[in-house]
């Protein structure tokens, strides 16, 4: 229950900070922000309870937890003629549909559309950048807290290659082919480098009176598509922590590398590998039961994914609006609102179908016991 609550809390935090990224950069470039809303759809009867106005901006809480939006003055420029309202042209854009129509002059300096393209691009990208910064903070916190790791103390499996090589009792593996191994993870990763070749294992074995340093050569055995020598962790653990600078360094590398790894993995993914909101909460609550490190890393990866997806060049996403700005830069003028609206409508329909698919997929995976953590 606590894990579920924390995942939902992290998702809400992601939405708030994403929209705050748009909000603060809009303010920085002196763009008037009309509405700052967490979630969509605030019934008119509840506006008095779920909204308030402060310094020209209406702050709202919606009832549909599918995101949020920041409505800026003059987000789009009307075509001529005629001079329709924003809602008439952008009726399929949730952000504009939720807000109110405010007339503005094309020369208004606090209108989004009248700002330089580079400023508009920064405002649009700021939400995703905020999510990525939050991911970096989660990663750094995880490395500072540390994680439980098995030591290099192992026990042989009966009838396995190492058991048949003479190792019958628990041992401490200190090196594999002269490569030092301090943890069970080190042992496994080093062994994988040399499979399927025989490996020289240096280990320490102790009895009641003394400890001995020995070396044994083990020939791996193929089981299915993998090789093994037949060892299991003895169960001894320790907490591996990083100092501040090491944590920053590792988090920076992970943050920079993650987009490449994530986008590379997408084409290889199966339908059962994809998780929607329900699946994310379910996975997160499961990870929470493992340890704090795993949960913080999960939160960091979730923030990274939200940031990356929002920057994809797809209409109705921030990346789609940035793509429209790039086209405007190349053409010397923006696409007509009619064209933008048509493209956005198609994308909105696709998004609705994807939402239904994700929901069905999440429920099916949970009912079928699909393990996303494999």
Rg, please? 27 Å
Which structural class matches the secondary elements?
Answer: alpha+beta
Report the β-strand fraction as a percent range. 15-25%
- The average pLDDT is 83
Summed up, the helix count is 12
Task: Write a structural description.
The chain has 374 residues and is an alpha+beta fold. It has three domains: 2-134 and 310-368, no CATH class; 139-148 and 242-300, no CATH class; 149-240, Pdz3 Domain (Roll), CATH 2.30.42. Helix content is 49%, strand content 19%. It is built from twelve helices and 14 strands. The protein has helices at 2-28, 47-50, 86-89, 94-98, 117-145, 161-164, 184-194, 244-265, 277-288, 292-310, 318-331, 337-368; strands at residues 33-40, 51-54, 57-61, 64-72, 147-150, 153-156, 171-176, 179-180, 199-206, 211-218, 221-223, 226-228, 231-233, 237-240. Strands 6, 7, 8, 9, 10 and 13 form a six-stranded antiparallel sheet that branches. A four-stranded mixed sheet has the order 2-3-1-4. A two-stranded antiparallel sheet has the order 5-14. Strand 9 (199-206) and strand 10 form a beta hairpin. Helix 1 (2-28) packs across helix 9 (277-288) and helix 5 (117-145) runs antiparallel to helix 11 (318-331). The longest helix is centred in the C-terminal third of the chain and has 32 residues, at 337-368. The protein is elongated and about 85 Å long.
């Amino acid at each position: 229950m606590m894990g579920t609550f924390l995942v939902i809390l992290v998702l809400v935090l992601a939405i708030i900070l994403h929209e705050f990224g748009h909000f603060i950069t809009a303010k920085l470039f002196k763009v008037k922000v009309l509405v700052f809303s967490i979630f969509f759809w605030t019934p008119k009867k509840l506006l008095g309870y779920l909204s308030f106005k402060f310094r020209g901006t209406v702050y709202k809480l919606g009832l549909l937890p599918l995101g949020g939006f920041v409505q800026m003055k003059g987000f789009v420029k009307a075509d001529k003629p005629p001079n329709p309202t924003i809602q008439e042209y952008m009726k399929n854009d949730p952000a504009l549909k939720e807000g109110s129509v405010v007339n503005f002059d094309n020369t208004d300096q606090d209108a989004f559309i009248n700002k330089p393209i580079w400023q508009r691009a920064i405002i649009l990208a700021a939400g995703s950048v905020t999510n990525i910064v939050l991911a970096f903070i989660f990663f750094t916190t995880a490395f500072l807290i540390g994680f439980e790791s098995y030591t290099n103390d192992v026990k042989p499996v009966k009838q396995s290659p190492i058991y048949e090589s003479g190792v019958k009792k628990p041992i401490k593996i200190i090196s594999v082919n002269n490569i030092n191994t301090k943890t069970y993870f080190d042992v496994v990763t080093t062994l994988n480098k040399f499979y399927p070749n025989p490996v020289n294992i240096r280990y320490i074995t102790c009895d009641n009176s003394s400890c001995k340093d020995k070396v044994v050569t083990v020939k791996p055995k193929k089981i299915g598509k993998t090789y093994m020598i037949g060892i299991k962790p003895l169960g001894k653990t320790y907490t591996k922590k990083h100092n501040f600078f090491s944590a920053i360094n590792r988090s920076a590398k992970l943050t920079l590398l993650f987009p490449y790894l994530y986008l590379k993995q997408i084409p290889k993914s199966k339908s059962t590998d994809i998780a929607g909101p329900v699946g994310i909460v379910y996975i997160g609550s499961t990870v929470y039961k493992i340890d704090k490190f795993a949960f913080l890393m999960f939160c960091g990866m979730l923030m990274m994914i939200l940031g990356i997806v929002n920057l994809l060049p797809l209409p109705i996403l921030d990346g789609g609006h940035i793509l429209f700005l790039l086209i405007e830069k190349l053409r010397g003028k923006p696409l007509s609102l009619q064209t933008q609206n048509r493209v956005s409508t198609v994308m909105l329909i696709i998004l609705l179908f994807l939402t239904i698919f994700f929901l069905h997929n999440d429920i099916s995976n949970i009912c079928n016991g699909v393990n996303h953590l494999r």
